[in-house]
Request: fold
Amino acid sequence: MKIGIDSIAFSTSKYFLSLDVLAQQRNVDCEKYCFGIGQKKMSIFPPNEDIVTIAIDAAQKILSQIENKKDIDMLIFATESSFDISKSAGIYIHHFLGLKDDCRVFDVKQACYSATAALQLAKAYVNSNHRSKVLIIGSDIVRYSPGTSGEPTQGGAAVAFIVSQNPRILEIEPHFGAYTTDIMDFWRPISMKEALFDGKLSAHNYLKSLEICTKRYFEKSNLAISDVDHVCFHAPFGKMARKANNQLLKSKTIEETLIYNSIIGNSCSASLYVSFISLMDNFKCDFSKKRICFFSYGSGSVAEFFSGIISENYKKMLKAEEHQTMLSQRIEISFSEYESLHSNDFNDFSAYQNVGNVILSGIVDNKRIYVSMEDNN
Ligand code: HMG
Reply:
């Protein structure tokens, strides 16, 4: 039975900071951020937007593509930026999406790898429950302390995809190569809002993991690099993915995979799948029957290299226009606004626009209050 991605879309904040502005303020050559790191803008999140609100927006883009929402009987929320270590972020979105209550909802966590863990879990689940559809959300907002080397690689986005049988976009193949090692390259203690990291160690371990995972994948699958048509990488910043591509196969479409990530920034669990969407939306060719490989890396660390075959009529499932409209309508913020949003001293929940129709309207007694603007109209 064919199982894989049946529909997919992403969402990000309405606001961004240009990295030219950040470079000027930090007294860094603009070329370093643009070419050395490979990033142009980063999404910045206002107080009324979080991993839940952008997740709802991403999911709403694809729900109209499935015949019956009642077939969704599992929702897996992949994130490393949750605000609650008990309640699943997925539960907040479940009722806004109008899903049935006979549905399992839970979060998964392993840094940027988590949405890939969710995908492989969902594939196994659909294999034994043929009529089931699983909604996977990967949603993260990446924050580093101001002035650190990670600062220009902040960002955030949510990706939503449905895993089902007879997928209309991508059939996931059985082969994979995985690699887990205990390493302190990036972590966020519960008490902290900003992640801690060892940048050089993380970049080194990313490339080492790629080498090990690809070796295992090719050994297990009996495929050769010449059997691969395109590769999408986890892209914490563009240069990291370009280095990975140089190490592996020098795929010509690496630039198309990075178009969205270069103006969103690192979106952790969503990043690899934003690379895939970026390739599909922006590279004008017929991908049907092509083999796409994926490299997922989550610090700490777990990495996986796997592949899929593009379905024949995938084109009608793409959301390219919606993605491009959303990105073109974003609003640039000044450096002082960025500083104020980053330090969280701006608590006026109504001063900013949301990307979608559900907003975080406030936090009362430590309870987050989400409101649909459609209900208010
Ligand atoms: P850095 O140390 O400030 O940068 O930050 P650098 O000095 O290494 O320079 C970067 C590149 O810019 C170099 O090129 C320089 O030559 C070039 P490279 O040698 O790499 O090819 N450069 C210039 N180019 C043009 N004009 C100039 C100029 N100056 C320098 N004037 C670092 C780099 C990776 C350390 C930083 O971005 C960082 O700490 N990032 C956060 C950690 C990270 O993203 N790691 C990536 C791998 S780990 C991962 O992907 C997991 C993660 O997503 C988290 C998760 O799993 O949850 C992070």
